[in-house]
Amino acid sequence: MAKVTLNNVWKRYGKVEAVLDLSLDCKDKEFFSLLGPSGCGKSSTLRMIAGLEEISQGEILIGDQVVNEVEPKDRDIAMVFETYALYPHKKVFANMAFPLRVGKQKYSDAEIKKRVNRAAEILEITDFLDRYPKQLSGGQRQRVAIGRAIVREPQVFLLDEPISHLDAKLRTHMRGELKLLQRTLGTTMIYVTHDQMEAMSMADRIAIMNFGVLQQVGTPFEIFNRPVNQFVAGFVGDPPMNFMDCDLEVTAEKWELVNESFRISLPPDLIDRYKENNGDPSSKPKEVVLGIRPENFIVSGKKGGEDNFPADVIVTEPLGEEMIVDIEIPNNKLKLKVSVDHDIKMGDKIWLDVMKNKMHLFNRETEKAYF
Ligand SMILES: Nc1ncnc2c1ncn2[C@@H]1O[C@H](COP(=O)(O)OP(=O)(O)OP(=O)(O)O)[C@@H](O)[C@H]1O
Ligand SMILES: [Mg+2]
Prior knowledge:
Number of helices: 9
Shape: elongated
Bound molecules: adenosine-5'-triphosphate, magnesium ion
Order of helices and strands: EEEHEEEHHHEHEHEEHHEEEHEEEEEEE
CATH topology of the largest domain: Rossmann fold
Distance between the termini: 37 Å
């Protein structure tokens, strides 16, 4: 069993509160990602799990054992950092064998060879075992660093932005490789990143943090489609979700989202979802924020149905199949992502509808999601 549990964990560096009352449960064999902006406490959390940083308050368990007082080397974990340090004077084989030669447990030469070869095979670096690190590319070196971590066959892998410094193409490639590796080894993995695409594409579940506070834990699908607040909604997705201030006007006949640009009526299922989550609203208009992702608009060249509203095209960025379109409506600048078939040009006037079942609504004060 190699689940990892955090119960009300705090990290303080003097007066700085880096992690506040964090509770998490990473399941056995799960690919779990800690995601959030720079400084939100991801590395501090990972380092406390690894035992490299003292826990200010709360407890951490690996399996069923409380590890607060357990030395890092006795936690049966392996950690890979962004800046991996390979020994430049040792060949790749010796670099990977190193943890097996220095640990408490003694391994025979035959066992060491077997484990290094197996790790090298999984990572497809068998051909490089006889080279020095300086004779490898950045991606190959990073694979050696990961290989060095897996030879010990630990219960838990902790990875802190292990591929952030690689170029974009190699990063995409390594994303797939790491995911496959984790599945092959069946080891619990906690993966820290500030890159939402990385977390979304690799993790079974994601925990999103901001200013040391946990915002939401969920599958990539849940995080993307049911963000609990405006921070999560805006952090995940590229380009980010558009937010527009408006009023929610409720009458016996209909519910409408209203501002100087549009008047959008809510379909019955969204009204039900609102009521389910928040109860009945008052009849007084409510100040809300409407959230729509760039890909959730329907664009046309002329005026359409009731909820349709006009916008001015400021600039277009074609990206092959799709195009990002910056538009302006009164008091708002928005980004759309549409097919290039639309043939939209700078200076055009276009008409928009929103995909209503993809709308998100937030409390303007608390930024919490109504739905
Ligand atoms: N040794 C330290 N002493 C004092 N403050 C620290 C120390 N280490 C981290 N901090 C602070 O704690 C907060 C969380 O830092 P942490 O390194 O955990 O963030 P992070 O989410 O990993 O960020 P990044 O994405 O930039 O790596 C930050 O405000 C940071 O300045
Ligand atoms: Mg960090």
